[in-house]
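Lecture notes, unit on protein representations.

Consider one protein chain, 375 amino acids long.
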Amino acid sequence: MFQFKKYNIRNYDIWMILIVMLLSGIGVFLIRLVEKEGEGLSTKQIAGVILGLIIIIIVSLIDYHFISQFYIVLYIINLILLIAVRVAGTTINNSTRWLNLKIFMFQPSELTKIILIIFLAQLLVMFKDKMNKFYVLLIMGILIAVPTFLILIQTNLSTSLVIMFVFAMMIFAGGLSYKIILPVLLIGIPLIFGTLWCVEQGYDVFFLTTYQENRIMSFLNPESDSSTDILYQQHNSISVIGSGKLTGKLLEEGKDTLQSDSIPVSESDFIFSVIGESLGFIGSCVIIALLSIIIFKCISIARHAPDAKGMLIATGIASMFMFQVFVNVGVATALIPNTGIPLPFVSYGLSSIVSSMIAIGLVMNISLQRKNKRG
C-alpha cells in the first residue's frame, strides 16, 4: 500500500524541509519576542514544530494515492468536526472556531483546507471527462460549499476565502473550459464590487456578519473609523513595521525597544508586524522570499507530478500557501481589510503549523514519485 521500496530517495527534497525548519525556527524566535511572561507560547510552538516535522516525514512516505482512496471518509470526518465546533466549540474573541482537547485548542478549519484539497483532487480526476458539464460543477460546488458555510458561520471569513480561492485554482488546473471561466468572471467581478458598494451604502449583506461588514467599511472609509478598535491593529502594525526601517530594531536598539507586542494577536495574525519591526525591510524580504521558494517548489512539483491527481493536490497546496501569505502580509500592511489568517510556518498556532506540515508532506510524496509512471 505505502510502496516505500518504489521511491527514489534521491528525489527526496531535503531543501524543502530545511526551508520549513528555518521559517519555523524564525517563527518560534519571533513568538518569544512578543509573548507575555508565563504564556509559554514559544514552548508550545516548539512542540508543534517538532510534531510537524515528524508528520512531514511520515506523510511524505505514504503514497498520496493511498490517502486519496479515503476521500469520502475524510470528508465526512471533516463535516463531523465542523459540526462539533458549532455544537460544543470554544469561543475566543467572538469567534467559535476551536475544540478544547484539554492538551491544546484544536481548530478543525485548518485541517479542512487539506482535506478539501485531497477531496477535490479526487473528484476532478473522477470527472475529468465531464468537467464542463453543469451538473458536475454544481455537485462539486455544493460539496465544497457545505464545509465552507460551516466555517463561515464560526465566524471565519478568512479561511472560507482560502477554500474558495483554492477551489477556483484547482478547477482551473483541472481543465475547466474558458467558455465557462469567462462568464463566471463577468458575473463574479461585478458581484464583488457590488457587495463592497452595498456595505459602503449601509445595506445588509446576508452572508456577512455585522462585524465583518464593519471591517470592510472601516477599510473603505478609514477616516470615519480611525479611533475604533477595528483599525487599531492595522494602524499600529503599519507604524511598527515602518519603525524597523532597513535592518530592524532588534540588532541596533535591542529587544526592550520593540513595540509590536502591544498589537493584539501579534504572535499570529499580525506576526508580519513583528518581522518588520525586529528584522526590518531586509528581514521581511527574506521571509517573503523563503515562503515564495516553498510556493514555487509546490508549483514545480505540480508541473512534474506523475499524474493529474498529484498535479491537482500540489496545485491546491501552492494556492493555499500563496493566498495565506498574500492576505497575512496584506492585512499587516493595510493593503486589504483586516481578516485574521496565519502566516504559514511562522505564525503561532498548533493547528496551523500541523496542517501546513501535512501539506508539505503531501507535496514531498508527489515529488518522490515524479519519475514513476502512474495512471
